[in-house]
Amino acid sequence: MPPHLLRRTLWGAVIALAWSAAGQASVIYDFEGYARDRDGALQRFGSFTYVSPDFITSAREVPVADLAYCESFVGAFCGGAGFDFPIPDAVAFGLTAVPGGRPTSYLIYQFTPDALAHLGVYTSVGRSNVGQLSVSMGSDKDGAVPEPAAWMLSLLAFAAAGAALRRRGRVGAVATI
What we know:
Layout: H1 3-23, E1 25-36, E2 42-52, E3 60-62, E4 69-72, E5 77-83, E6 90-96, E7 105-110, E8 120-125, E9 129-139, H2 148-167
Antiparallel strand pairs: 1-2, 1-9, 2-4, 3-5, 5-6, 6-7, 8-9
Helix pairs in contact: 1-2
């Protein structure tokens, strides 16, 4: 294989691998909420993880079935989450009395403007509650099985190494014992 064709093929494989990896990117919202009890002490209220295909820039209500993880610590069941809902730049933790039911009440956590649309860790401090939101980039795939582009890149790398070794010639010493 001519060197210029080999270089083009390798660059094509690298670009294909990068393109397929970029297409799988997602935004991960991890939330942990605390609420004050009757004595004024903060108690862990609930937490959830939501994997979104893009940043949240408008109101979005997420049913519990679409959350990657959701747990309530107040004797009720997790009922889902709301983003920019019912007020801008807020996260709403929904509660329900029935597992898998629609939320009957929400605890609202207000964050800094545009926190939902940017990577970072944000803290909401209100009179009666405190929440922490982590916004990070992730991947929809768990990495257990490589994509076809990754296999192709590996095969091309082995082929390039083999071609380079073959081009060097067959000069070498043979050791005998």
